[in-house]
Amino acid sequence: KRQLKNIYNGGEGDTVTVESTAHFGEKGVYLGIEVEDHNVNYNENREVFYNSGMEIYFASGDISNAVDGAYRFIVNAGGATLLQRYSGGSGDGYSPQFFAWDVMPFAGIELQGGAIGSGSCTGYNVELFIPYGVFGETAPDSVWMNIALLRAYTSDAYDENRTWYSFGENEIGAQWTVCSSWYEMDAGGLVAH
Asked: How far is 105 from 179, CA to CA, in rounded Å?
């Protein structure tokens, strides 16, 4: 599979490497993301997006505008998730989205190197499954994807200080509401961008 490799440089040797790819299965799309990060932080008492993790934006390759069916799936290093659909409107335009259990996307997290806070955690892997029913009646030939790194700096329950870094916006000029400006994945993985 062709992989997308992104690198966040926080300065002074502080880098995070993120590699991702897609697999189109019998019932849905699997997005695999490997994150190498020596500073992973999580606290179950914070909102999902104030912990180390990923925001994964996705839409069917058949659409070009977010309002026609783009989603944001937030998953943090502790395994908590939040699914939202773009509808425009106030704030950043994303609001909670719910599906029947048989078409609800879900994710799994696997820590690398050791437990969070142990000093030996070197990152995490994310596997996101998106049932084809999310995209409508038929499976898309490709999906648009943009990922944003969420990087919390402590595990303190009240610390909301974090970095939010959109690889698509910073590396290829992806636009927030134009899915066709995001990275494209098909059955072979990354489509050249």
From this structure: 19
